[in-house]
Structure formats: C-alpha cells, structure tokens
Amino acid sequence: MHRALLIAAALFATPALAAPSAEQIAAVEYVAEAIVTGDFCDAWEADKLAAAKYLAGFGVEDIAADAALQEAFNAKYSSVTYAAESLGNDTMCVAAEVLYGPEGGNAPGLMIETP
Asked: Are 27 and 58 in contact (CB under 8 A)?
C-alpha cells in the first residue's frame, strides 16, 4: 500500500533517461527504509509528501519508470522488512526518529509522528 502511494505521488513528472546516480539510488533506499520503519512502529509513519519532495530533490520523479530504481527500492524494502520482523516496535520507533524524524541522521523529515 505504502509503495503504491509513494509511486503514485511521483507519477506527475517525466522519468529520467540516464542511468540513476549513486545518490539517486541512496535516496530511493532511504525512502524504502523509512516506509518499512513506519510500518513496524506505532508512533511514527512515513510522510509521503515529504518523501516525494525528497526524491524530487535528487531528480527522482517516478521510481517505477526506472528498473534500477525499482530494483533498489524493492531490495531495500525487502531486507529492512526481514530485519524489522525480529526487532520489534520499540527498536523500529527509535530508528524512525533517529534516522528519519525531524532531526534524523539519514534523511530528516521523512517520518512524522502518528497522530
């Protein structure tokens, strides 16, 4: 569900024609990680608008339009999901805030507190 919403949010722009850069792949992986983190934490959730803006800042407008970006997203999503299943809610909430919360170390602002 979250992946579909994120991809749909970026459909309004044209896809890049060149192979994605390392920075673009890293940005896509951060977004995938933030989405999974939010799925396993009750206190935080991924901010889809912030994620779309974050990706646009790296020139990523449509993950689904680029096979390499889609592969990077899916691989990160799967690996973090696998890890999160054993870590639990508390650990994932700490990760959400520390990595993607307002002062996050990876990509600040990708997570918002759950209302």
From this structure: yes
What does the DSSP assignment read for 47-110?
-HHHHHHHHHHTT---GGG-HHHHHHHHHHHHHHHHHHHHH-HHHHHHHIIIIISTT-SSSTTS
**pLDDT tens per residue across span 10-63:** 544 444 457 999 999 999 999 999 999 999 999 999 999 999 999 999 999 999
Q: Residues, the chain, total?
A: 115
pTM of structure: 0.82
- For 33, 59, 86, the CA distances from 106, given in Å and listed in that order, are 10, 18, 22
